[in-house]
Design brief:
It is a single chain. It contains twelve helices and twelve strands. It has 274 residues and is an alpha/beta fold. It has one domain: TIM Barrel (Alpha-Beta Barrel), CATH 3.20.20.150. The strands form three sheets. It has an eight-stranded parallel beta barrel. The chain has a two-stranded antiparallel ribbon with strand order 6-7. Strand 2, helix 4 (64-73) and strand 3 form a beta-alpha-beta unit. It is globular and about 50 Å long.
């Protein structure tokens, strides 16, 4: 993907995005492959899209202080950083230090460690205990811990799902909804927002190719990530509901190989919702 060519085609977004407000951001994992080749050029690309708010936590081989300077030079702000499951379990101070170094407000955990496809209430109970303990420490440090479900949490449990158990027992952590993975795991993202309006602090905006049938493994071909508004997820209703219940930041995440072309189209879709 040629960044220079893309830059010239999306500069028009600079005149559009300021009206969108600061609630739209980008999960940097979307551009993981671009960062491997050109860190500064990839940050230039993000800036050209008119995006200022980021979720990440990796400096892509650049010394942290230098990376932070590169962000500041482009008015890019790290809202949230990732906290690994084992670090939250064994070294919360490390997680806190990383978040503070970036000036982040949120720490996001995106995966509960488990063996293969084996995931049940035992895993969930352990995770809830870890998240509550870590979340309390993070809160005392001025940070909010959120857990990002990947689909296997929506397996049946008693009268509901494993996720329902997590919500009922989440005392010191909240959740980040990735609308793709919620639907892929068999749940209805809109119904879930409406059921638990005070439990979701952040959101990932990611659309799913039409015709794709999900599963509860937490795995799928990344090429099934499509431009927002062109897939099978009701993005319009979800964005409206997220704003209604006060979700402050919604991060676009596009894991496909077409991310550089697709993100500007997704931004135009979001602007059209105004």
């Amino acid at each position: 993907m040629q960044l220079k060519k893309t830059l010239s085609t999306v500069l028009i977004l600079l005149f559009v995005l300021p009206t969108m407000g600061q609630e739209i951001g980008l999960q940097l994992y979307s551009l993981r492959n671009q960062f491997k080749k050109d860190v500064s050029g990839t940050l230039d690309l993000i800036q050209s899209w008119g995006i200022t708010n980021l979720e990440g936590g990796d400096s892509y081989g650049v010394p942290l202080d230098d990376f932070k300077m590169m962000l500041a030079e482009r008015d890019l702000k790290m809202i949230g950083v990732q906290g690994g499951y084992q670090d939250l379990k064994n070294d919360v101070d490390k997680v806190i230090a990383n978040a503070k170094a970036y000036g982040a407000s949120y720490v996001m955990c995106a995966w509960i460690d488990h063996k293969g496809d084996e995931f049940d209430i035992t895993n969930v109970k352990e995770a809830v205990e870890i998240f509550n303990a870590a979340g309390k420490q993070l809160s005392e440090a001025g940070l909010q811990l959120v857990y990002h479900p990947h689909g296997y949490e929506f397996r049946p449990y008693k009268e509901g799902t494993l996720f329902d158990y997590m919500v009922a027992n989440a005392e010191d952590f909240a959740f980040e909804m990735d609308v793709y993975w919620v639907q892929h795991g068999g749940a209805d993202p809109l119904a879930l927002l409406q059921k638990y309006p005070k439990k979701f602090a952040l959101m990932h905006l990611k659309d799913m190719a039409k015709g794709l049938k999900g599963n509860d493994t937490g795995h799928e071909d990344v090429e099934t990530n499509v431009v927002l508004g062109t897939g099978q997820i009701d993005m319009m209703a979800l964005v409206a509901e997220a704003k209604k219940i006060g979700i402050e930041y919604m991060f676009i995440e596009d894991e496909s190989s077409s991310v550089v072309e697709q993100v500007p189209q997704s931004l135009r879709f979001l602007e059209g919702l105004k």
